[in-house]
Design goal:
Strand content: 15-25%
Helix content: 25-40%
Low-confidence stretches: none
Distance between the termini: 5 Å
Mean pLDDT: 97
Order of helices and strands: EHEHEHEHEEEHEHEHEH
Number of helices: 8
């Protein structure tokens, strides 16, 4: 069993008031990747400080050397593939090729209406996602792209010199539905899930494991359908949204047990939230650091 341990650092602190420290500490603790959410605002943090993902990751790239960086996740809610591609190529260059793009279809939260549009239905979000990802793939892989779609267009969009990582930076595609899973199978270097949201309030950890097993089996079936070798597709679990909630962060033993159960399902990377006091992600920082430093050795 080998499992990478990563973290997600929410961009709610000013850079010089704790923001920078979290990213540099993440590298010191040996995390595989440090991600951040790509939202305009998010849930209970809506009326407080919240900073942009790409500038935050750019700053993080400047103060770290080995740590991989990424979004978890970017969505079409307020992004266009042409402008996003330019930002990602720049970020990949500044970081020296350490960027992973987590990407999903988006939701019905604040991002969905911040630009003044009506919120899209789940079907509309899926329709846009199916067009967004392949176009972004091309924009990050080709010097010049022209495209006319139902939702997005590109007219001789140039992205020279392209990504440091070749043929482009990796995609980690968040998906549980059939169309999203096909995108993960065709375009992803990783697949991302948070589990079954219907189990969060009243489900059990055992039910969650079963649901995740079912999702992983659907992904395997999808890969077989499109002729994708599963060997090269990482499987990422963003924790904190299953019935376990922050339970795995209560102790080193609790986390190793949690991680082991999910590694058996085929997951190759677990992502834990950096502790935030008085939030759904509250956790003891000393225990969190112990897990970061000691758990990976027990998961190999």
């Amino acid at each position: 069993m080998s499992l990478d341990l990563s973290t997600v650092i929410l961009p709610y602190r000013r850079w010089n008031e704790g923001g920078r420290t979290a990213w540099t500490r993440a590298e010191q603790l040996g995390f595989h990747t440090a991600y951040t959410y790509d939202h305009l605002s998010w849930r209970s943090f809506r009326d407080g400080p919240w900073f942009g993902a790409v500038p935050t990751l750019t700053a993080a790239a400047a103060v770290t050397e080995r740590l991989r960086l990424g979004t978890l996740v970017t969505s079409p809610n307020f992004r266009h593939p042409v402008t996003l591609a330019k930002e990602l190529i720049s970020l990949d260059d500044i970081s020296g090729g350490r960027v992973t793009l987590g990407i999903g279809a988006g939701g019905s939260g604040f991002d969905a209406t911040a630009l003044g549009q009506d919120p899209w239905t789940p079907r509309e979000r899926a329709d846009r996602f199916v067009e967004f990802v392949p176009l972004l793939d091309r924009l990050l892989s080709e010097d010049t792209v022209s495209y006319e779609g139902d939702f997005y267009s590109a007219h001789e969009a140039r992205n020279i010199p392209g990504c440091v990582q070749r043929p482009r930076l990796p995609f980690a595609v968040a998906a549980t539905g059939p169309r999203g899973m096909r995108l993960a199978a065709r375009h992803g270097q990783a697949w991302v899930t948070t589990g079954d949201p219907k189990l969060y309030e009243n489900g059990t950890p055992e039910q969650s494991v079963q649901a995740l097993r079912g999702q992983a089996e659907k992904l395997a079936d999808t890969c077989a359908e499109v002729g994708r070798d599963m060997t090269g597709l990482d499987r990422v679990l963003l924790t904190g949204f299953t019935p376990d909630r922050t339970g795995p962060l209560q102790s080193l033993d609790a986390f190793v047990d949690f991680a082991g159960r999910h590694a058996e399902l085929g997951f190759t990377e677990l992502v834990v939230h950096w502790p935030i006091p008085d939030s759904p992600f509250a956790a003891d920082e000393k225990v969190f650091e112990q897990i970061a430093m000691e758990a990976p050795a027990q998961l190999r």
